[in-house]
Design a protein that fits this description.
Blueprint: H1 14-36, H2 45-51, H3 57-68, H4 72-78
Length: 79
């Protein structure tokens, strides 16, 4: 019988292991963008970040800019 190391299941490549987290972040960022684009009733940047599960506003803003090429406040201003 072949023995497997107890941690063998955790030895996925970095790209594979992080794929679900990256997908979740992408979905949360897309939802934040949708909220910030709402006409008239758009939440503040802080409200959108917290609603979408981002606890650190600086990290939210950096991730948003990396994903969409603009600051969350720019998206909100265009609505």
């Amino acid at each position: 019988m072949r023995r497997q190391h107890p941690d063998a299941g955790d030895r996925l490549s970095a790209g594979t292991r992080n794929a679900p987290a990256r997908r979740a972040d992408r979905l949360r960022l897309e939802e934040a963008r949708r909220l910030l684009s709402l006409p008239d009733s758009a939440p503040t940047v802080t409200e959108a970040a917290i609603t979408c599960g981002f606890g650190h506003l600086g990290r939210f803003s950096a991730a948003y800019r990396a994903r969409f090429g603009e600051a969350p406040s720019q998206t909100r201003a265009r609505r």
